[in-house]
């Protein structure tokens, strides 16, 4: 008896290989991807590299995302498989096989699929794990050690994820068989979908939500505000996309039917009529394709741009090779001497020196007044950072000879604009702005700051001291202090620069100084941007799996359903050429919409994405634009290829 169940299970898979093979290949691919992400997360070789710990932290986020989407994709594909197999199971039931017997067949089939997925996915994952480690090391600017290792924790997690996914699939399949009657099983594949109700109202809701999301993306100017509103905009776009494709597609079909010049053409008449009565299911699939396509485009364009623009961002954040910052009471001359003494040990001299004494204060800028606000419920657009220089410092740095009267200041706007004639700090008397001046110093702090930033030039050190006392009092002592900053370049290799940084930190630690270097920051930049790019590539591959499968299964499903309809049309005189033209019209109409909508989403998301990437150091908007447009064109080419393949599968089913 066990042999009979095994044979029935095997023949069920073999006879339906057209629908089981994509399921199995995707299951193997997702299992492989999950093992690779888990392997890199636990890899000791990656952990010991410069920036490896930061990269593993980023990749650990990816394990959860891959796990969630793996379960969703497998469940979605299994629901399609069950829809195709219900007729077969119903026939078994009518011929005398009980539901318990059918359940045993399902258990055998799930076991076969699970075993194949584990062997294939885990085997490929282990085989490619070293290659992925080499790629990760390259992105970090490191070399991977020799040797091959199987990570037990990654194997455990992969087996657990796959087992849980297939367990849920099996329980769902058994539940479907248990609650269905034999007649319902026989008719399961032929059950249609009714058009959704209240489509005009829901279509309007979708348009309103999409408009709000687009408005947020276009109008928000400050990076920190964009970050806080990004997830709201994403949720609105996803909900709006599903509403517009599910409900708006029905509305569109009705409008097309009213357009007699379009509708009463042979290739359009059949496709539009067919789509209208199945758009609830079709709309959901098309919306999923659109959302997944948008995710792929956003992730690839953003992470690739960050990685390719890494060096520009690095030099903006660290304008000199080495810099020292003193935050407490300090003797400027003594610090200079100690720095020179450390550098001279390596027979080097400081080049392109820059040094400044400043005070940096933050608050809420309302109109012309910077308030020392401690309330957390403030508008992020109003948060501003003011960096204060003395007039003497400004003239030295800018090479000018400006003068100020009592109560006058100079202002330099680094981010945004400022249209007021005066500026008030806390409760002090407003300062008269003599004039606005351009940015006059390379400032890594300005680059790293996510809020609006202004440079304020005051007459003398006494005024800076007074401002420091006012903000310290307002913030109960938890405020910034006057700091001394010195940066310089060196004609030395990376190892020497790191050694000098370490020596300076040891020499000046007692003075409360912080020593940083561009080379030390480089490893962090490569870890962050390389990790994001690697994760973006992995997740994009997973989402592409989902996109291709939804397109493929949708066409297979439509092909099986339409085969009978087109057979009848062929009998009443419609030629195969006309049928093919109608098929192309339907598929082209259906699959062009998600790509176009994804392009529109990406275009409107561009301003918000740029401001978000500005928080992470992106400064080259031209690079981002080129990569975004190029990424969309490459994806469109892949999308056209997928369309051609699915169109062929659909036509083969219809004409058979």
Gist of the model:
The chain has 656 residues and is of the alpha+beta class. The chain has helices spanning 2-15, 17-42, 44-47, 52-94, 99-140, 152-179, 182-187, 199-219, 223-258, 260-263, 266-276, 279-308, 310-317, 332-345, 391-398, 444-448, 461-474, 494-508, 518-571, 576-615, 621-655; strands at 322-326, 351-366, 369-371, 383-390, 408-413, 422-425, 431-436, 452-458, 483-489, 513-517. Strand 6 and strand 7 (431-436) form a beta hairpin.
Helix percentage: 55-70%
> Order of strands side by side in the largest beta sheet?
2-3-6-7-5-8-4
- The stretches of 5 or more residues where confidence is low (pLDDT under 50) are none
Shape estimate: elongated
The structural class is: alpha+beta
Mean pLDDT: 79
E-strand count? 10
Strand content: 5-15%
* Largest beta-sheet details: 7 strands, mixed, barrel
Compute the CA-based radius of gyration.
32 Å
Give the CA-CA distance, first to last residue.
36 Å
Q: State the helix count.
A: 21
Please, could you describe this protein's structure?
This protein is an alpha+beta fold and 656 residues long. Helices cover 70% and strands 10% of the residues. It has 21 helices and 10 strands. It has helices spanning 2-15, 17-42, 44-47, 52-94, 99-140, 152-179, 182-187, 199-219, 223-258, 260-263, 266-276, 279-308, 310-317, 332-345, 391-398, 444-448, 461-474, 494-508, 518-571, 576-615, 621-655; strands spanning 322-326, 351-366, 369-371, 383-390, 408-413, 422-425, 431-436, 452-458, 483-489, 513-517. A 7-stranded mixed beta barrel has the order 2-3-6-7-5-8-4. Strand 6 (422-425) and strand 7 (431-436) form a beta hairpin. 41% of the residues are buried. The mean pLDDT is 79.
């Amino acid at each position: 008896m066990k042999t009979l169940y095994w044979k029935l299970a095997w023949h069920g898979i073999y006879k339906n290989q057209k629908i089981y093979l994509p399921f199995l290949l995707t299951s193997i691919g997702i299992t492989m991807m999950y093992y690779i992400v888990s392997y890199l997360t636990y890899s000791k070789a990656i952990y010991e590299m410069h920036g490896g710990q930061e990269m593993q932290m980023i990749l650990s986020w990816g394990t959860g995302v891959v796990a969630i989407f793996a379960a969703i994709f497998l469940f979605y594909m299994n629901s399609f498989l069950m829809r195709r197999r219900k007729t077969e199971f119903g026939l078994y039931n009518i011929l005398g096989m009980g539901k318990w017997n059918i359940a045993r067949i399902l258990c055998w089939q799930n076991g076969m699929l699970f075993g194949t997925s584990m062997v294939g996915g885990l085997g490929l994952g282990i085989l490619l794990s070293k290659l992925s480690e080499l790629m990760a090391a390259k992105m970090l600017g490191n070399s991977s050690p020799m040797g091959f290792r199987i990570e037990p924790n990654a194997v455990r997690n992969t087996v657990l994820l796959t087992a849980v996914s297939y367990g849920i699939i099996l329980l769902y399949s058994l539940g479907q068989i248990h609650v269905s009657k034999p007649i319902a099983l026989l008719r399961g594949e032929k059950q249609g979908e009714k058009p959704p109700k209240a489509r005009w109202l829901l279509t309007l809701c979708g348009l309103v939500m999409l408009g709000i999301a687009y408005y947020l993306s276009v109008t928000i100017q400050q990076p920190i505000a964009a970050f806080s509103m990004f997830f709201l905009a994403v949720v609105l776009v996803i909900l709006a996309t599903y509403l517009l494709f599910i409900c708006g597609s029905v509305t569109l079909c009705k409008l097309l039917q009213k357009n007699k010049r379009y509708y009463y053409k042979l290739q359009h008449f059949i496709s539009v009529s067919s789509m209208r009565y199945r758009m609830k299911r079709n709309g959901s699939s098309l919306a999923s394709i659109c959302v997944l396509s948008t995710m792929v485009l956003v992730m690839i364009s953003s992470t690739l741009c960050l990685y390719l623009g890494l060096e520009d961002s690095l030099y903006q954040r660290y304008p000199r090779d080495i810099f020292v910052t003193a935050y407490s009471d300090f003797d400027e001359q003594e610090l200079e001497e100690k720095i020179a003494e450390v550098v001279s040990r390596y027979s080097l001299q400081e080049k392109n020196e820059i040094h400044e004494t400043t005070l940096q204060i933050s608050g809420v800028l309302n109109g012309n007044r910077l308030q020392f606000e401690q309330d957390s419920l403030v508008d992020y657009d109003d948060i501003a950072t003011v960096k204060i220089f003395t007039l003497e410092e400004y003239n030295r740095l800018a090479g000018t000879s400006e003068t100020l009267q009592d109560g006058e200041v100079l202002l330099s706007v680094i981010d945004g604009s400022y249209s007021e004639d005066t500026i008030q700090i806390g409760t002090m008397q407003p300062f008269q702005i003599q004039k606005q001046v351009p940015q006059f110093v390379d400032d890594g702090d300005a680059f790293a700051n996510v809020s609006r930033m202004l440079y304020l030039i005051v007459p003398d050190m006494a005024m800076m001291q007074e401002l420091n006392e006012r903000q310290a009092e307002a913030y109960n002592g938890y405020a910034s202090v006057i700091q001394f900053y010195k940066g310089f370049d060196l004609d030395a290799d990376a190892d020497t620069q790191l050694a000098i940084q370490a020596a300076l930190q040891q020499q000046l630690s007692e003075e409360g100084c912080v020593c940083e270097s561009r080379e030390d920051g480089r490893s962090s930049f490569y870890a962050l941007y390389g990790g994001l790019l690697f994760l973006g590539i992995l997740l994009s591959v997973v989402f592409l799996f989902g996109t291709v499968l939804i397109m493929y299964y949708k066409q297979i499903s439509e092909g099986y359903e339409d085969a009978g309809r087109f057979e009848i049309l062929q009998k009443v005189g419609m030629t195969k050429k006309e049928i093919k033209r109608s098929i192309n019209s339907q598929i082209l109409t259906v699959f062009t919409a998600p790509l176009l909508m994804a392009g529109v989403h990406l275009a409107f998301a561009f301003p918000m994405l740029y401001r978000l990437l500005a928080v992470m150091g992106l400064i080259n908007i031209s690079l981002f634009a080129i990569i975004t447009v190029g990424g969309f064109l490459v994806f469109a080419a892949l999308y056209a290829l997928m369309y051609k393949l699915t169109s062929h599968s659909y036509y083969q089913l219809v004409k058979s």
